[in-house]
Design goal:
Layout (H helix, E strand, L loop, with lengths): L5 E5 L5 H10 L4 E4 L14 H10 L3 E4 L1 H4 L9 E2 L2 E2 L1 H5 L2 H14 L4 E5 L8 H12 L4 E4 L5 E3 H11 L11 H16 L12 H4 L2
Parallel strand pairs: 1-6, 1-7, 2-3, 2-6
Antiparallel strand pairs: 4-5, 7-8
């Protein structure tokens, strides 16, 4: 297995046993939950109150990081047009402090970031968190649903391909093209604030 500093995984709708098997396949010892709300109505076994003791039974620790590394910020200033602004979030001291705390945990243990989305390119764990970690020089592996592990550069190659851009690390403007690809993808999949319903007119309220 290629040496990775950190892993990520999306729990999706996996059975709990399958999820644990995926973690074992990467020798994970700590699950770092980066969900803003660590609960699931559709898969309650992934709610923190159920997941933490299950992981403990398997010799793995559970740690919550959603307050600093979550994808649904509470601050209205971190939204642009109602869409979570990952670039603005990455500049916040609380986010950087969350990364620092995560790296302290990962210094001596195999950590896997967990969110809910199956596909890394649909999730802030990749588009926000591991992008920032890779910029710090860390090697990231995304655990996919078939058990294979995709490196961050390979994930970024798929990201570029979504926009029809060839993946050439040494091409002029590569960094700019990659940043633009991240921006487009984030705008498409980042959390959106719910639209408020317009107030009903007196006539509508009588219906």
């Amino acid at each position: 297995m290629t040496a990775f500093d950190l892993f990520t995984i999306g729990h999706s709708n996996n059975p709990a046993e399958r999820f644990v098997d995926l973690l074992r396949g990467a020798d994970v010892s700590v699950v770092a939950d980066v969900r803003s709300t660590p609960a699931s109505r559709f898969c309650p076994w992934f709610s923190a109150t159920n997941l933490a003791p299950r992981l403990q039974q398997q010799g793995m620790d559970y740690q919550a990081f959603g307050d600093s590394l979550g994808g649904r910020p509470r601050d209205p200033a971190l939204y642009s047009g109602g869409v979570a602004d990952y670039e603005a979030m990455a500049e916040r001291p609380a986010f950087r402090a969350g990364l620092d705390r995560l790296l302290q945990v990962a210094a001596g243990r195999r950590v896997c970031l967990m969110c809910s989305e199956r596909e890394p390119l649909d999730c802030h764990r990749c588009l926000l968190v591991t992008r920032a970690l890779a910029e710090r020089g860390l090697s990231i592996g995304h655990i996919l649903q078939d058990g294979t592990i995709e490196s961050q550069p390979d994930t970024e190659a798929r990201l570029l391909a979504l926009g029809g851009t060839e993946d050439d690390l040494f091409a002029p403007g590569h960094a700019e093209a990659l940043a633009a690809a991240y921006r487009r993808r984030a705008a498409a999949v980042a959390y959106r604030t719910p639209r408020r319903k317009a107030a009903a007119s007196p006539a509508q309220r009588r219906r």
